[in-house]
Write a structure and sequence with these properties.
heterodimer; A: MetI-like fold; globular; B: MetI-like fold; about 80% helix
């Protein structure tokens, strides 16, 4: 068994782990991440660098590409906002109330994590298209829910819900009721207590859930393409534009758009990590 | 007592309305689509459903999906456990960076992930010439599909285990070490019993995503019918051919898998919530 020993002692921890296996497990981990993640990432960045700045800008910020970013980011934003409201409500109901079917409701919330996106896509289309269970009554009222940007928002709402619920739920459950009681004793109304006492407490988690849902929505593909309609400039999301470019053997164009999406998601990831780290320190302080 | 409780909770009517809105929202967004999958799949009866499933291309897709999951899930399980061991049982520089890197695949668009592999292994990719000279096919073939599945499912096991093993600390392993147990035995006898439910949970999520991945696999598979079409891809092909009944039949198998996943996941959370709690479930 490879007994690991690191040459230099580390700052902070004064202690060296006597447990074996560091050399082996760290090698496996680094190989795993290099082959599956780092090498492909480098390939993408190098490919986009070899395009040259003029060509890159032309491909990454063509009118059609910009329209696709507007849709992908815009629809993800709207869907995340809808989920911030209703996800908070679902989390609230799950934590605070006892009612028949509560556990079932709690289990069903995770469906988007388990259901393959392509299945979600055709199912949402079946329900929200003009012939569907919801789409038909809506169309009578003159509302078109599928094959347009509304359809994109619906798909991203499906995908994003568990992110908000699962982020807010534990914070809500851990929250002490002491402040609420104090506020009530002082005669504050329930709604005021919610706004002034409860909301500030869960707000950071709500922002995290919102950001996670948004980040997931920006890159989402499978659940969207069936319900979107996929009209260039109107209902074409960025990941679909990448696929279209690939089908035309335009690797340069696909790479440029993919690089923009990738940078956006890495920046989002950094922001979310920083926000969560700040929250963790604040809570432990 | 009751007056105090009343002050920090809502009235019965408010409660009922809030519960109703939450249930209606979840029904509209999640339950109706799920129900529609089964309703569409069995619209033309059991016989039509069965015919759509035993059709050769559908069977080939089912077999491919099972094969891809059987290869990629164990790889990410072993590597995820290794990563969690290195990160939680040892101290080294760059640990935080490693944890962040493991998170990255969750934030990459699946389509972008697929494209990255195409740039490496496609005909015009970095290794394209070398691969074709040696008659090895990765892009538009099964190895590419496995790679795409591996990257999108990379974080699940590690992300489940890292917080769990961090919370459990190192004392038990260190005690076993002083008793003279070799490393692999420490892992099997001390660590594994402590993390088994968390590990199962991670494997469950890995498997669900592996069998259902669409975007990344779609880019790299090349859509060769009966050969490189997984079940989700087969759903798309059938749907685009307006063969809705068959598309929903295959989709209903995947939806069934999702339901099984949810049931097992919920059972794990109820029974072993204490172990999973560390990871924030």
């Amino acid at each position: 068994m490879a007994t690991a020993s690191l040459p230099i002692s580390r700052k902070g921890r004064g202690r060296h782990s006597p447990l074996p296996g560091l050399a082996l497990t760290l090698t496996v981990t680094i190989l795993w991440l290099t082959v599956l993640l780092l090498l492909p990432l480098v390939a993408l960045f190098i490919k986009s660098l070899t395009l040259g700045p003029a060509h890159f800008v032309e491909a990454a910020f063509s009118r059609r590409a910009i329209a696709s970013y507007e849709l992908s980011f815009g629809a993800a934003l709207v869907a995340a906002a809808v989920n911030a409201v209703f996800g908070l409500l679902v989390a609230w109901v799950l934590v605070r109330y006892r009612f028949p079917g509560r556990r079932l409701l709690g289990a069903v919330v995770d469906l988007p994590f388990a259901l393959p996106t392509a299945v979600a896509g055709i199912a949402l289309t079946a329900v929200y298209a003009n012939t569907g269970w919801v789409g038909k009554p809506a169309s009578v009222l003159g509302l078109q829910l599928a094959y347009n940007p509304v359809g994109v928002v619906i798909a991203l709402t499906f995908i994003g819900l568990p992110f908000v619920v699962r982020t807010v739920e534990p914070v809500l459950a851990d929250m002490g009721r002491g402040l609420e009681e104090a506020a009530a004793t002082l005669g504050a109304r329930r709604w005021i207590i919610f706004r002034r006492v409860i909301l500030p407490e869960i707000f950071p988690a709500l922002v995290t859930g919102f950001a996670l849902a948004f980040a997931r929505g920006v890159g989402e593909y499978g659940s969207v393409i069936f319900i979107a309609g996929n009209m260039p400039f109107k209902s074409e999301i960025s990941p679909l534009l990448i696929v279209t470019k690939l089908e035309e053997y335009d690797y340069a164009g696909a790479t440029a758009i993919a690089t923009v999406l990738l940078l956006a998601s890495l920046i989002l990831l950094l922001l979310i990590n920083a926000w969560q780290g700040r929250e963790l320190r604040r809570r432990s302080a | 007592m009751s007056a105090k409780n009343k002050a920090i909770t809502e009235g019965l009517a408010t409660k009922a309305i809030l519960i109703l809105v939450a249930v209606v929202y979840v029904a509209l967004i999640l339950l109706l689509p799920l129900a529609s999958v089964f309703s569409e799949a069995f619209r033309h009866g059991w016989r039509a459903f069965k015919e759509a499933i035993v059709e050769p291309d559908a069977l080939a897709a089912i077999k491919l999906t099972l094969t891809v999951a059987a290869i990629s899930v164990p790889i990410n399980m072993v590597c995820g456990v290794a990563a969690a061991w290195a990160i939680t049982k040892h101290d080294f520089r760059g640990k935080q960076l490693l944890i962040s890197l493991i998170d990255v695949p969750f934030s990459i668009s699946p389509v972008v992930a697929g494209l990255m592999y195409l740039l490496l292994f496609g005909a015009q990719g970095w290794f394209g010439a070398w691969l074709s000279a040696h008659d090895i096919q990765i892009a538009f073939a099964k190895p590419g599909i496995v790679l795409a599945t591996l990257i999108v499912t990379l974080p699940f096991v590690a992300r489940e285990l890292i917080p769990l093993m961090q919370a459990q600390g190192r004392e038990e392993e260190e005690a076993a070490l002083t008793l003279g147990a070799p490393g692999w035995r420490i892992f099997l006898w001390v660590t594994l019993p402590n993390i088994r439910w968390g590990l199962l949970y991670g494997v469950l999520l890995t498997n669900a995503r592996a069998m259902g991945e669409f975007g990344a696999v779609s880019v790299i598979s090349g859509h060769i019918r009966g050969e490189t079409d997984t079940m989700p891809l087969q759903v798309e092909v059938l749907y685009n051919e307006y063969n809705f009944a068959a598309a929903f039949a295959v989709a209903s198998l995947l939806a069934g898998l999702a339901l099984v996943t949810l049931v097992v996941k919920t059972l794990l959370e109820w029974r072993h919530g204490d172990q999973l709690a560390a990871a924030g479930h």
